[in-house]
Amino acid sequence: MPRLPPSIFWRARREISPVASLLLPVCRTLQSTANELRWIRDHVHRTPSVIPAGIRIWQLCEERSRGVPLQYLLKTQPFGPLEILCRKGVLIPRQETESYTFHLSSILSSSSSSSSSSSPLTILDLCTGTGCIPLLLLCCSQKSSSHFSCTGIDISARAISLAKQNLSHNLALIPSASSSIQFIRGDIFSTKFTSEIYAQHLPDAAEIDVLTANPPYISPSDFRSQTARSVRHYEPRLALVPDSVPSEVSKKYGCREEDVFYARILEIAGDLKPKRVVLEVAGWEQAVRVVEMAQAQRDTRGTDYKVIEIWRDDVHGVRDAGESTEIWGQRIRVKGEGDGRVVYLSRLLD
Amino acid sequence: MLAVPGVYRTCTWSLRRAGFPSSFLRRSSTAKHVSALPPKLLERARILSAEHDQLSAKLADDFDAKTAERAGEIFRVAAAFKQYEKAKAALSELESLLKSNDAEMRELAQEDLNDTNTQLSDSSRELSVALTPKHPFADMPCLIEVVPGPGGTEGRFFADTVFKMYQAYCENKGFRSRVVKYESSDSIGAKGSEGEIALQEAVLEVLDEGSYAHFRGEAGMHRVQRVPATETKGRTHTSAVAVWVLPSFPENSTSSSASEWDNPESDFYIDPTDVKSEKMRASGAGGQHVNKTESAIRLTHIPTGITVSMQDSRSQHTNRESAWKVLRSRIAQKRREEREEVARNLRSSVLAQSQLTRGDKIRTYNYGQDRCTDHRAGVDFHNLPDVLRGGPTLGKVMEAVHTYLAESDIQALIADEAAAAIASTKAKNGK
Lengths: 350, 431
Fold this sequence. Notes:
The complex is a heterodimer of chains A (350) and B (431).
Chain A: H1 6-16, H2 20-27, H3 30-46, H4 53-65, H5 70-74, E1 76-79, E2 82-85, H6 95-115, E3 121-126, H7 132-144, E4 148-154, H8 157-169, H9 177-180, E5 181-185, H10 193-201, E6 210-213, H11 220-225, H12 229-234, H13 247-253, H14 260-272, E7 276-280, H15 284-300, E8 307-314, E9 323-327, E10 330-335, E11 337-346
Parallel strand pairs in A: 3-4, 3-6, 4-5, 6-7, 8-10
Antiparallel strand pairs in A: 1-2, 7-11, 8-11, 9-10
Helix pairs in contact in A: 2-3, 2-4, 3-4, 6-7, 14-15
Chain B: H1 9-17, H2 39-61, H3 65-98, H4 103-131, E1 142-148, H5 153-173, E2 177-184, E3 199-206, H6 211-215, E4 220-226, E5 237-247, E6 275-279, E7 297-301, E8 306-310, H7 316-347, E9 361-366, E10 371-374, E11 379-382, H8 384-388, H9 392-430
Parallel strand pairs in B: 4-9
Antiparallel strand pairs in B: 1-3, 1-5, 2-3, 4-5, 6-7, 7-8, 9-10, 10-11
GO cellular component, one term (chain B): mitochondrion
Domain Prokaryotic-type class I peptide chain release factors (chain B): 281-297
InterPro entries (chain B): PCRF, Pep_chain_release_fac_I, Pep_chain_release_fac_I_sf, Prokaryotic/Mito_RF
């Protein structure tokens, strides 16, 4: 990262505020510093406290200068129309996730309106974290009058309790949520995972329509060299790097260390047979590897995904450029702009 | 209304006390009214009134929503026309009485004459207002955009004052308003004379329907004359602030207009492929690797080159929606202005009066003289602090502007009719 010239610190002190020079090393630009300071001030003025506002602002700026993510300091992150609560120990929702969730919701609403089936769509979200993906899907479904029934699963007890809080926090926007969404603690690597899910939490013989997941996907070496300081030091490693999985389990799949979750999720998808699978990935190379894993299942398990797509960072509201690529002789549509972000698999031709 | 209240108020009182006839006092030019209606307008009123009679007869037989709507539209014209006819008939009767030989009769008629004359002018005024086509955006909520004029920070400080003035005015009047954008310029630390911040651009949305008609007259250059906080030698500076009033789209209206921006015929329609959307943030790794807080969005409408950038909210989603809203409003206003320009060119042959355009100054706020002058209505108001607080004095200024706008609309309409008449006679002569 290039060094910031001293003059920019002087400008921040003089033109924005004395505390702005604290934020500058994290925010990097004057504009972004001014914005973050404004949001911190707004937050302080909105939440009353016995501590004087000036001291609280200074404290927050001081913590931010040490790299604490702004979302942990302000305790929320907007996600579409929702306000998602954020707490240490749970991954903060990303803007890319917001973009592809919107895109997925538009696909679901257009397909559900054409099929006009009255039974609700069943959505299973693995590694749900704050619960942002099922909550946003549910929120978007309010307008299109399609019915969803969502289940979010995470291994972290903190994540599950925060997801439940997020549900009640956003109940004003999604009044139907309390009956149509559940968050359950579960370990997707447990051998009895699929049978337990069916036995305990899903309605009898329910077909899963959509399986979404934003699993940990950063390799340990990338975690050391490629991640931002605030992510590395303050966000949970459990949600970022898949090295909590026992090595004998990851050896069983015979894939790279960072791809072990995809191998397991595709295995689960082979059992549950969801109509659509949406997996967030780290970049183009990983997207191609995941597509190859999905295609390999056709031979080993007979799971045939008729449509395979790769979505880039900004996919919602971006015009389709008609880009496509070919992996193992199958044509893969590529949507959006930016780096590869999502692998979309569908058994339906739509 | 007195042309110069305040300063001469004491003088006029003393004059009145001295028995000075009030007819000698100069009145504001806005008080003059259109007394004689041109025959073309009367002709149209007669046709519309006849149509209304026909429609109401039809409605009595069987109700039809479309007919009822049309009847409602022209009801005001018909009612005003009837009033006008009545007043006219009364006047002619009185005139005949005046010629009578009976002295007592003549006296009575003379007494009634004044009343009837005011009735006639009132109803003719009402008629011309009713005949003036309603502004197409009149029923809409609006966006008030405040942008400082070129020049130093003084204009930016005053822009903040103007913005606060409209915000307070909405609060006082009970309009629901919402700050869409409030962006200060680089030198955020500096403060103006009354704790103002240097404003780069601000947008206030007034959510009430019909607020476009209410605030339409505020659009234009607002000039300030005062001694800035930064001035050391006590000189008065003049700077300017531009205020644009744009029609905005009602957020969740159930009427047919809700789907209007999807309709290519609408002024608000924007082809999504014409708009370039940019996220202003550093490139590089995304996803779980980084944790971005930048949420700025910039939209560029390629055919017109209009750009809107929005970074107020932490949510990119909210920023994008606000940016689209402002872009739609700006484009709708631009299209409307282009059409009005064409219409103005058509009637310029008839109407010599100069029309105000975007560049003309419309109002002056003079701190030294405690005065607020509206240049179009030609009125001065004192008690500037009350104006800047959005108090009742600002309400009076806006009322004067409304009267002015209504009158200029009527004049434009009369000019249009005359232009059309000239064109038709030319066409006839050509044959």
